[in-house]
Amino acid sequence: MFTKSQLISGQAVYERSGLADYGTFLGNGSYLGPDYTAEALHVALGGMHRYYAQHLYGHSWDSLSKEQQGGIEGRVKQEVRINRYNSGTDTLTLTPAQVAGLDAVRSYYHDQFVSGKAPQGLKNAPISQKTSDYLVDGDKVNQLAEYFFWGAWISTTNRPHSDTTYTNNWPYEPASGNTMPASAMTWTAISVALLVLGLGAVIWFQRRYDLDTKLSFDLEHPQLPDPDKPITTSQRKTGKYFLLIMLLFGAQILCGELLAHYYIEDGFFGLPIQNLLPFNVAKSWHLQLAIFWIATAWLGAAAYMVPRLLGREPRRQGRLIDVLFYSLIFVVVGSLIGEWLSMMGKGNKGWWLWGATGWEYLELGKVWQFLFIAAMGLWVFILLRGFLPAMRRAGTPGINTDRTRLTTMLLISAVAIPGFYLASLFILPNSHVTYADYWRWWIVHLWVEGIFECFAVILIGWLMVDLKLATSRSTIRALYFQLILLMGTGVVGIGHHYFWIGDNSIWIPLGACFSALEVVPLCLLVWEAWTHYRAYRENGAQFPYKGTFMFLASMGVWNAVGAGATGFLINAPAINYFEHGTQWTPAHAHAAMAGVYAFFSIAIMLYALRNISRRQAWSEKTEAWIRRSCWALNIGLAGMVFVSLMPLGFIQLADAVANGYWHARMTSFYDSTLAKVLLWGRMPWDLIFTAGVVMLLGVVIHVVRNLKPAQDHEMAESHQQWDKVE
């Protein structure tokens, strides 16, 4: 029926066409299109039913009686559970009825991608027939359909010596016998109990060993940090990073608004824009721009810190800052163009190198991944020029050892950012989907939610010490506690992404129990920072970093509500079994990515901008615009998540339970009156959020136009080495 090379070619067609940024496979991907695993399974079952209707009764399926249909359904349900794969010969044998199911799947996707109108949000003829790397000759739509059929097969066929399928009975499809495994309910209950016990243990341990950060000032006479000291050439040059950040942020938001509109109509207010910028291209840009601008914020802020740590400007540091900046622009522009060419079918040979690799969050081609890693490597080198000399001062008279430890922790977390991104290189176009998704979640979860969070926790601690809010000794003790919690829960907590991808069932208990506590560390530290800022405010002091702490406080709320509450809601196995890939998933993703990492990035951007710009740039009017921006971003995000996406996900979840997962993931689901109301109702919240971005862009432009002059010599004279100050 088809060979392994044709199956791999079908996977490569899926990747090259960017369908993971339109629909999902095994529930992972994007959410306008269908889940191709569940859809192919439903279509194949229909083909098998029709085969037996003709073979046994000589009539069409619809003309059979309920009893006859029930008999066929029972026979098919038993037939699809039997595993006919021979590992010795690497051969899968299909029954005649399964062959009929395969033919039905091929015919269905020809109607979807060739014969009929293109799926909503995709360009006309979205599947290119070109043959190139990892693809073989033949009809590419047939090969794609065979890949989808294989996904349906692994989801409904029992593992050897097991009564559950390779995907732990996912997706929910009663016609194939796919129902929620008992272990999902059992471990959901246990995970709730462990969450309560774990939170209690964390609170007790923190209180018992006094792991709070301590105030570093006298409440009666607080010592305010001075943001108006001279700056160096490299510090001044970081200003353009922050302008680039806001431009990328704005472009990302525009892509997101286009994506939201595609759920309502096939085009943009009647314009067939999907033939120029289809949903899958806009989705890949939306994700990559978020990663790029958030990473750029961290690169720029950390580069600003190097002379602060060293107490002077390293030689030719400004040139390195320029090289890194233009390298980032080259990677951003080049990778976005490559993704467009690949998904539009205009790229052929080397599509996975220069175009799009086809995996959500890892869309940029392998060449761009290498260049992005190289740019981050250059950033680490820039940091080493200041961090290493500061670390070597440990143990010398007059040096605060705790501050040196804090510097060391920050450097290690910075090195881990490019280090863990190396996992992206393990995935090739012919990688097995379970293997590929295993490593992909290292990027989406362990890199973004783990390593990013480690860097954020440590950098917040560094800021608290630098801004004279906390003592370095208490901050170090608190950070050790936070990081043990973070990595102790987060590394194993990645398992909630492995429930249904064909991996071992052991991930159900591990993922359920460990993922819930990941949110605790950041909430604890940010709350302490806000508490200390309130001490300044209540004492009447004019704290110069109000904008930074407004966004840090917002981040703390969203970390608890968005990353924590919505994350635990969808990660519980008994809920995730039905919810996986519905609108609750992007609700959690937006609340966590925008509410936590975007707001944190804005906070550190404002911190660095305040230090490299003139005092007069920070008038009451400027501070007022920052407050308005912060409120607009928070209100817009809250409306998007809780007024639109969460209710939409609720009715989609109900549809999945009532009619099967495939039905809830049909594009036609969004055509119902209630879904339309919720989708149109998202528009005002999106516009409020966009207004917040525009206001913040105006602030950044104003501040960047008022940068301090570079005064390397004066900076060295006026700044003490960071680790000499307490």
UniProtKB/TrEMBL annotation:
The keyword Magnesium does not apply. GO terms for cellular component: membrane. Keywords: Electron transport, Membrane, Oxidoreductase, Respiratory chain, Transmembrane, Transmembrane helix, Transport. Residues 198-726 form the Cytochrome oxidase subunit I profile domain. GO terms for biological process: aerobic respiration. It comes from the Bacteria. GO terms for molecular function: cytochrome-c oxidase activity; heme binding; nitric oxide reductase activity. Its EC number is 1.7.2.5. It holds the Pfam family COX1. Signal peptide: none annotated. The chain crosses the membrane at residues 184-205, 241-264, 284-311, 323-343, 367-388, 409-429, 441-465, 477-500, 506-527, 548-570, 590-609, 630-651, 687-704. PANTHER family: CYTOCHROME B SUBUNIT OF NITRIC OXIDE REDUCTASE, CYTOCHROME C OXIDASE SUBUNIT 1. This is Nitric oxide reductase. It comes from Acidipropionibacterium acidipropionici (strain ATCC 4875 / DSM 20272 / JCM 6432 / NBRC 12425 / NCIMB 8070 / 4).
